[in-house]
Design a protein that fits this description.
Radius of gyration: 29 Å
Order of helices and strands: EEHEEEHEHHHHHEHEEHEEEEHHHH
Helix content: 40-55%
Strand content: 15-25%
Strand order of the largest sheet: 8-9-7-10-11-13-12
Largest sheet: 7 strands, mixed
Number of helices: 13
Structural class: alpha/beta
Oligomer: single chain
Distance between the termini: 22 Å
Amino acid sequence: MHPRDQTIFALSSGRPPAAISIVRVSGSQARTAVEALAGRAPAPRMATRALLRDGEGHAIDDAIVLWFPGPASATGEDVAEFHVHGSRAVQAALFAALSKFENVRAAEPGEFTRRAFENGKLDLTEAEALDDLIHADTDRQRRQALRQLKGLLGDKARNWRARIIEASSLIEAGIDFSDEGDVPAELVAPALRTIRSLLFEIEEVLGKQGRSERLRDGLTVAIAGPPNVGKSTLINLLARREVAIVSPHAGTTRDVIEVQLDLDGYPVMVIDTAGIRDTVDPIEQEGVRRARARAAESDLVLWVTDAGHERSENKIETAAAALWIVRNKIDLVPAEKRPGTTVGTDAGQGRARTFRISARQGDGISELVAALASFARDYFGAGEDALIGRERQRKLLHETADALRNCLEVAGRGDELAAEELRVASQSLGRLLGRIDVEDVLDKIFREFCIGK
């Protein structure tokens, strides 16, 4: 039997030990397993208490059993759920009993969701959203994934594809009746109006999404600067715990330290890097090299300097969206020489901004954190209207828009050329939904899921 035709099972709740563990079974043998283990199959979608027994009649656990006959189930197949006590021993006994049934095996990562996709229970954008929802660390990641899971992008894509196919059929009909006077023009004109409307809608979605697909991975902020300017103290303050060693000796930080922050619901990865300076120490040289490399890859660089030695700074070369200057240790600067906590503003991504703080005493930190949250909000854009959740989706929507644009450009030079561009547009949306030529994409996406989902 092909692996996709076999019945699968897996733990669908957290790792044991736990109060309750949920084991799911999906496939043609699910009913056989339920009847053998629980004595009978419960009424559909009715939680039923049962004493589970293995093939030799030994008790496994006093459990709650649920039965979902296909196709009215999460995967579209027959599905059973066993809610058992969450010990490792109970789980192991239940898995051993399930494994003894013919053509029943442990599930691979993402296999339940893949079967739901293959049985038409959800499209690929919804499957991706489910994975994003499982791995969401912040509230905004959760909300964006939930919007996708509700099918907002998938519903639009299906509507767009249906309209493209309708326009394509009109143009193809025009080709078929090309020898009948005004018939082609009567067919092509409404098709082109539909294409213009579609192109406007897709470009509008692409234009207002900002970098919403980056919300999955988060914003990267590198803290860089010379040695002994308080970079490690600053990241400890932002993280609210000691993640970096703080020392008066230069060169203490040799490797890159990463901390995940939640700033107003936005995921932000803050990186503490080695002090950048000329050194003969080979280990410190490697730390400096890594610091420069990570800063160059970051979305924002906080260049930290000693407020008492502002003229000695040596900014790093970076391709980042912005570089902010952070003057630290203002508590050591005489009050009469101390300017305001923050100076300089920028209406865009904040390239010219300067902040004056004391990482040791906390002065100016609230303003810096607020600025970081504002930067993240502007960077990701779109807010509650975001439809695009992954770079793959953005790429395919761009391909669709390009094909529609090309269709309008070549329409006057031949209906066959226009029809070919519409075919390309339809295929791009088909790949977005996971319905056309995406086997390699499916393998990659579903392998990233956790087992049992």
